[in-house]
Amino acid sequence: MLTSCEDDVLELTPFNALSEETAFTTPERINLAVVGIYDAAQSGFFAGGAVRGYPFGAAHVEQGDNRGEDMLNLEAFYAITYESTYNAASANNLYHFETLYGVINQANVVIEGLQNAVASNVITAEVAQQYEAEARFLRALSHHELLVHFARPYNHTPDASHLGVPYRTMAVNSPARVEEASQAGRNTVKESYDLLLQDLDFAEENLPDTRSNKISRATQGAAIALKTRVLLHKRDWAGVITEGRKLVPESAPFVSPIGGYSLTASPEGPFENNSSNSESIFSFENTANDNASVNGSLGQMYNAGTGGRALVAISPIIWNAAFWPEDDARRDITVSTARAIYTSKYRDAATQSDWSPIVRYAEVMLNVAEAIARTEGNGQALELLNAVRGRSTDQLYTDLSGDALVQAIINERRVEFLAEGIRWKDIHRLAVEGTFGPQGIPAKVASANLKFTDYVAASGEVRAGAVSVGAIPYDDYRFIWPIPVTETNANPTLAAQQNPGY
Prior knowledge:
Belongs to the SusD family. Its main location: membrane. The protein has 502 residues and is mainly alpha-helical. It has helices at residues 20-23, 27-42, 59-67, 79-83, 91-119, 125-150, 175-181, 189-206, 220-234, 237-244, 269-272, 298-302, 316-319, 361-376, 381-390, 402-416, 423-430, 485-490, 492-496, and strands at residues 44-45, 51-54, 71-73, 280-284, 312-314, 334-336, 341-343, 356-360, 440-441, 444-445, 467-469, 472-473. The radius of gyration is 22 Å and the shape is globular.
């Protein structure tokens, strides 16, 4: 329901699968229309109409990981992303762009339909506001994913006046709007973030704090959690703390007053029972009947267990990191072969039903910890860091403050969110600063040079011959992806605003 043709990148083909008059004539159909936005986000199209989990059913994890250094591409599947050899026609980045805007347009069509449904007394204004809040949450999530791949980070210019992405709030569902949208250009990064945060503020105000399917449908807590991430990218440390305090108390035990979120007892908890646990704030649901397929699902791509294709492994770069203790329980969420070590966070290779994680309570805690460390030097930051770290190891940090504490938090994120697609987001937001991470795309281990003996837990060293995919500096054009050629061919304004170098 509410699908458009796939021929145009920004989903500019007029909405034609079902008339809007029909789609919004009953409460039941309206609910299905809202659910359809989630479906578009979980299982958008790929080349030839294939389903590979674009954008959020799996691809955001796989693309985010392969842009960083902590996961290791072993085959040709993600080589273009891993080795940064993409161009404006490369399938992975092209379909990521297309399907994200497909989600955005579907959200906008629903928002407009809700307004008409209220005017026709089909649903109440209160019900419509909650549905609109879900749509705006998904719209914000999609725009932020676009910003971290297709635009430079917020602090690239002092006032964030550089080009972001087109922030689309208009439903493209008529020939006139197709024409209007086909001439529209990119918002600045500042404009994009301002609009994004407006969407999340509306979502927070109008979403329930809990619901029966509270992980797979947006809640108030999910909107707040995503705001802490967005504000971290904006480097609004005070904003991160203000929003984070809504979910993270000022003292242990750390249980959110909204939604009841808390760390699971084991680091495996969010993945053992990904449909019902205390830590997962928002994830996209996959099932045996609706998933990213054998060519895209997380269980297939990442798992070396029975039935898994094992195309992406853990890199010796992170496995050998001295800041990851050898006795850390997170090292047990793995499986080894004669070739490499793999994550077992995603364990259902057979039916591909592993849910795709978006945000966990652990991330909110570390977001707040970093913001406190950057503004107060220590405060509660060390306690929050050790709360996340301490469920996996007894080797806790003591007497850290300032830059050393911030670095420890960044390091902890690399371990805690390994194989969840977050590493690229951190590389992106930290690149200009250059203090706590690589100033660009980091050097990586090449699969052709990998030996199993390269894995030496917590050794602090990686064999020099293994790291042969060269680093790319921040000022290189390849740090961000190009606007797809399918879009620049159709939109002269965007053609003139193509990312330099492409």
